[in-house]
Write a structure and sequence with these properties.
Elements: H1 2-22, E1 32-34, E2 41-43, E3 52-56, E4 59-63, H2 68-77
């Protein structure tokens, strides 16, 4: 009888562990990231202060046109700084 109870406890514990592992949410792209050139926080939405799209592996972020990343992105897109 003890062996049956131990087996049941082991099965329940293992099932709970597998269920908890299977329900972990997948990691998504961060909402903001810091520009490596100007250290400005870059969001995923275009704004007046951050009009230049910077494409990364995790998504498209927007930065200012004044930093090196912004200048490079504008040059690649064929745009000129106003």
């Amino acid at each position: 009888m003890k062996n049956v109870i131990k087996s049941l406890v082991a099965v329940v514990t293992l099932s709970a562990m597998v269920g908890a592992y299977a329900q972990k949410p997948k990691a998504s792209a961060p909402k903001t990231m810091t520009c490596p050139s100007c250290k400005m926080p870059m969001g995923m939405k275009k704004t007046k202060d951050a009009p230049v799209a910077i494409k990364t592996k995790t998504g498209t972020y927007y930065c200012c046109a004044g930093c090196e990343s912004g200048k490079a992105a504008m040059k690649a897109a064929g745009k000129k700084k106003k």
